Amino acid sequence: MLDGKKSLFSGMQATGTLTLGNYLGALKNWVTLEEEYQCFYCVVDLHSITVRQDPAELRKRARALLTLYIAAGLDPVKNCIYYQSHVSGHAELGWILNCFTYMGELNRMTQFKDKSSKHSDNINAGLYTYPVLMAADILLFQSDVVPVGSDQKQHLEIARDIAERFNSVYGDVFTIPEPYIGKVGARIMSLQDPEKKMSKSDENPNASIYLMDDPDTIIRKFKRAVTDSDNQIRYADEKPGIKNLMDIYSAATGKTIAEIEKEFASSGYGDFKLAVGESVASVLKPIQTRFDELSKDKAYIDSIIKANAEKADYYATKTLRKVQKKVGFPEKIR
Ligand code: TRP
To answer: For a pocket test of ligand 1, which of 51, 115, 134, 145 has the largest count of ligand atoms closer than 8 A to its C-beta?
Structure first.
């Protein structure tokens, strides 16, 4: 709870480009949460350097991500969209929580195992303690809920364990965060392998629609989408490719699955794919236009970055002071 409102925290990596899956599955629904929750959307640049980054590229991407969140409809005054590196409390609380986390727990993290096998030349300690910093992100804002995908569930679990451990020693310091279960968005699958989630880190660019793709690219990718050979637009588990396209079309147009089956009862896949592509292009168009406008308005984006860093820092400092006192650090003379 923060100022009488439940708080919600989410962090996102500025690596890769946001996809239609990120938008329809998450972002689009987040816009509706701002009245009910104090929302924090943090560009987690401290996490990003656990794998080597090109500095100029990282800076550019982080800003583009932040801008894209605003372009996608998140009000940057109601929602605190900010950079993790601008709020030193993340790193400070991260250190303290490192001392309340067991190596045995970290050894079980599947993401560490995956990432260290992918980056075997750079298995650094930051990669290992990544989940602890993530716990700090969440606990710093006394977050009640955290919208996480299935790949981050284990990290949220460890955040809860760390919080409970700390609270059992020092009393009620941290809110124990829950996964956000609310109106969940559509689960969008890869266009090339509809059994797999659409992912911004997919190496095949035809598997994902990026939020910045132009209409021609979007339509071309949908035309190439993997389907089946029965040529009927019907929602069925044994037709994962078509099912995915129907989910996308439904999310893009607001039409129900029954309406879609009726609309395309006498069409083939070619026409259907074109309709899906066009509907997605028209959903993304205003976001792209807004992104271009915002990107040109450097002063405005800068002012948002500054104000939100201050706002996040205010709440972070409150929690951090409490924690520092609990663990026995001397009070700072001001
Ligand atoms: N690890 C998350 C991811 O890669 C990003 C993240 C960092 C995060 N801190 C967080 C997500 C706190 C939710 C809450 O997707």
So the answer is: 134
- Residue 189 and residue 197: Cα distance in Å, rounded? 4
| 97 touches 132 (CB < 8 A) | yes
CA distance 68 to 63: 8
pTM value is: 0.92
Q: Structure tokens of 193? A: 């392998």
Structure tokens at 80: 């605190």
- Ligand 1: distance of its center to the CA of 11 in Å? 4
CA-closest residue to ligand 1 atom 7: 11
**CB within 8 Å of 94: residues ≥ 6 apart:** 46, 129, 132, 133, 135, 136
Q: Residue 283: what are its φ and ψ, rounded to 5°?
A: -70, -40
Query: Alpha-carbon distance 52 to 75, whole Å?
Result: 32
39: its two tokens: 């929302």
Cross-strand partners of 5? 2
Average pLDDT, the chain: 95
Strand order, beta sheet including 178-179: 79-83, 37-43, 6-12, 145-146, 178-179
Best of 15, 43, 47 for a ligand 1 pocket test (most atoms within 8 Å of beta carbon): 47
Q: What is the Cα–Cα distance from 36 to 113, expressed in whole angstroms?
A: 37
Q: Where are any strands of DSSP class E within the chain?
A: 6-12, 37-43, 79-83, 145-146, 178-179
Question: Tens digits of per-residue pLDDT, 146-160?
Answer: 998 888 999 999 999
Q: Report how many helices (DSSP H) and strands (DSSP E) the chain contains, helices first.
A: 14, 5
Residue-range domains of the chain with CATH:
6-180+298-327 (3.40.50.620), 205-293 (1.10.240.10)
pLDDT tens figures, 190-241 = 999 999 999 988 999 999 999 999 999 999 999 999 999 999 999 999 999 9
Q: Whose CA is nearest to atom 6 of ligand 1?
A: 11
Residue 46: CB within 6 Å of ligand 1? no
